[in-house]
Structures are given as structure tokens and as C-alpha cells.
Amino acid sequence: MAVSFDFTQLSERERYKLMIGTIIPRPIALVTTVDEHGRINAAPFSFFNCLSADPPILAIGVENNADMSFKDTGHNIRMTEVFTVNIVSFAIAEAPAAFECRRHVTLELGRSRQIVMGEIVYAHYRDGVVDPRLHVDPAAVDAIARLGGDTCATIRDRFEMLTPKL
Which InterPro entries match (predicted)? Predict the structure, then answer.
């Protein structure tokens, strides 16, 4: 027997719980920004993904503070128009890959969240992550993904599945 939920009848927290428990795994990014005074900020995001290769666009979901003021990441991107998305690996100390982005567009979703789309202008990789044919080694990236609640996972178990031809 199936269970269904009318999202229009659920609270924000209930919708959040269902979404983060179902849309898995979600890559974790450490987004770094600099404010207009030169202060560096770093914040983790699991509402992040790639959207397009032409132009090269990725997106992060930036939540506001409870009083609807901008958190540091959102504020800094608004003021400087740039941010860097660092891929979080199991080793954590140094990102295996980082994307320098220029803000492309910001979508306001109600009062509590923005979706910031950034155009990737530079990509940086740790030695050994990318081969000469531009194939990225998933084991070298060793990315961490967010599952529901506080549960995270790595991508160490892999298998091949051909992309369907349409």
C-alpha cells in the first residue's frame, strides 16, 4: 500500500524531512566567500548541484536567518558577485576540486531562501584527480554526500549503468 503526502498541507519542517530523506545522496559543498571588507567565510551546503554545461552553471540553495536577514554567504555573494564551491571529501582537509563562480542569477524563493546560480569561470583539481582526457577519478575525489538527518555517505561502492539513448 502506498503512502502519499499533500505538500500543501504539510509544514515546512515536514516537507524538509521528506525531501532530504528521499533526494539522496546530495553532494556536500563548502562554499567560500569574501565580504566587502575582505573577511573570509566558509559554510557547508548540501542543497547544491550542477545544472548546465553550456553555460557551465551550478546552483546552491542559500537559506536566510530566522529574521529573514541574509546569512553571510548570501550577503557576500550579493555584494561581491563571486563565490567558490569546494567539494567536500572524506579526507576533508583539502578539497579535491573547487569551482570559482561568478553569480549568474539569483532566484528568490519566498522570503526564506535564494537559489544562487553561478557560472563556473575556473575549476581547480588536486593532483591525480583528473587525467589528460579530462576524466575525473571518483575515488580520488572521495566525495561525501548527505543523506537524511545527520547521516552521510561516501561513494566508494560503484557500479556501471549505461546512460539511456533517447
Answer: Flavin_Rdtase-like_dom, Split_barrel_FMN-bd
Structural element, H or E, at residue 15: helix 12-22
The alpha-carbon radius of gyration of the chain (Å, integer) is: 17
Q: Which of 114, 44, 48 is nearest to 77 (CA)?
A: 114
Query: How do residues 88-120 score in pLDDT, each as one tens digit?
Result: 998 887 899 999 999 999 998 888 889 999 999
Q: Can you give the CATH number for the domain in which 121 is found?
A: 2.30.110.10
Q: Evaluate whether 25 touches 147 at the Cβ level (below 8 Å).
A: yes
Range of the domain at 117: 25-154
pTM of the model: 0.89
The number of domains in the chain is 1
Question: Is 18 domain-assigned?
Answer: no
Q: Which residue has the cell 505538500?
A: 7
Low-confidence ranges of the chain (pLDDT < 70): none
- Tell me whether residue 93 is in a domain: yes
